Amino acid sequence: MLKKNFTSSIDGKELNDYILHVENISRGRFVEETNFELYLKTIDRETSENPVVKAKYFSGRGEFYKPWLEIYYDNQVQFESAKIVDLSEERLDEKLFKHLSQFLPPNSHIMVIYVNHEETRKGLELGVPPPATSIGYLLWKSGCTWFKDWYFAEGFWEGDVKLQGNKPLNKENRRKSLLEIRRELTEFLKKEKGEEKLFLDARKRAEDVLKDIEIEISTS
């Protein structure tokens, strides 16, 4: 029987003036895997022509294989009425990622394919820390505190390039990760003085993350 717990949970969630709508659910390679697409639906029930997310969800297996979510994220969707919604410009992207992360347990992870996100791709190549990239920042805002860049220089045999964000197992694990992120971002801000928009935006995100970390550490 196809597992629908995750898809049922995310279907119908509000995204400001829109509603998330799940379609095209199918079983993946294993019984624990579910493929699905996530669309935006307007108040008057018009559904976007293209999905905002194409996803593969793994529900977990036993003690050692924790749940994960792999997604292809498109921050722009179009409707038949010719209306185009840019989730980044309308500040819907953070809320979307929080919805996706909300139904994943501690020690699970989200992997975002970034081949279509030029800023993140280029930033990672130039040494921008993951939380300071556009995709990494969304993962950070959704509760991830450990990151891995799945980039393979010799081709795509292992799958598309993707950025992974892990949710911490517990408070101790989270604090350890926060200290490591603080160190990495502080070093980045000290050495990176580029005036390209990519670096200006990355430094702004790094400063925002550091502020969040300082507030959490000082109050914990």
Defining traits:
alpha+beta, 2 domains, 6 helices, globular, eight-stranded mixed beta sheet, Aminopeptidase, 220 residues
What is this structure's SSE topology?
Elements: H1 5-10, E1 14-15, E2 18-27, E3 33-42, E4 53-58, E5 68-73, E6 76-78, E7 84-86, H2 93-102, E8 109-113, H3 118-125, H4 134-141, E9 146-150, E10 162-166, H5 171-191, H6 197-219
Parallel strand pairs: 5-8
Antiparallel strand pairs: 1-2, 2-3, 3-4, 4-5, 6-7, 8-10, 9-10
Helix pairs in contact: 5-6
Mean pLDDT: 92
* SS element count, helices: 6
CATH architecture of the largest domain: 3-Layer(aba) Sandwich
According to DSSP, the number of beta strands is 10
Helical/strand content category: alpha+beta
Helical fraction equals 25-40%
- Biggest sheet record: 8 strands, mixed
Strand order of the largest sheet: 1-2-3-4-5-8-10-9
Helix-strand sequence: HEEEEEEEHEHHEEHH
What is the name of the CATH topology of the largest domain? Aminopeptidase
Q: Assign an overall shape.
A: globular
The oligomeric state of the chains shown is: single chain
User: How many structurally independent domains?
Assistant: 2
CATH class of the largest domain: Alpha Beta
Proportion of β residues?
A: 25-35%
Query: What value does the Rg take, in angstroms?
Result: 18 Å
The CATH superfamily of the largest domain is: Gcn5-related N-acetyltransferase (GNAT)
